[in-house]
Amino acid sequence: MSGKKVSLKISSTILSPAPAVMVSCRGLEAPCDKDNIISIAMTSTLSTIPPLVHISIKDVRFSYLQIKQSMEYVINFAGENLCYALDWCGIKSGKNVDKFAECQLTPEPIANLSTARAIGESPLSMGCRVIDIVKAGSYEVFVGEVVSVEADPEILDGSRKPDFHKIALLSYTNGKYYTLGRHMGDLGFSGRAQAAAV
Ligand SMILES: Cc1cc2nc3c(=O)[nH]c(=O)nc-3n(C[C@H](O)[C@H](O)[C@H](O)COP(=O)(O)O)c2cc1C
To answer: Exposed, middle or buried by CB within 10 Å (0-12, 13-18, 19+), for 72?
Structure first.
């Protein structure tokens, strides 16, 4: 790449690609007391100890009401095989449709949550309990403490850690879906290469 940079339209979502995820949730009272899925691009790690993550949701979403009631949600990673469902759950509202049934997905209990259920077909799910809700512009940030992580054994590496190459994670940026790329090295590889060169 060469040449002078040009200015683009100001955007916070340009920080993507982070993985786009399918967040499953369920409220406590009618009409919110049914399993639902919302597609979420605005998610990130906030802290390692305690393990905190966030999802940002607009207050007009049906899932917003559901999560406010139960104070629980499940972040389900989406691989290539879930791209269609990821898109569909991001254009339909659970107020009007049963997204689990329409996408032929299975709600499954996840450890340490009493209301929200995971997506059985997702290779990796994180159960989260909401510990804080912070207003951020037109969204609300649901800070979640991760209380369970459940994975399909087939996507684990030899150290029982998720091998993201096996999942082929999806990302969403500027209205387009991508798969996240190749494994480029392990933590500290730059330092080891430098030491070897000295
Ligand atoms: C890939 C993708 C990512 C999205 N990310 C977000 C997000 O981070 N926050 C949000 O409030 N809505 C997001 N949306 C929109 C919601 O998923 C969409 O409005 C959905 O229909 C809401 O469903 P619900 O009414 O059942 O909650 C996204 C949509 C797509 C397709």
So the answer is: buried
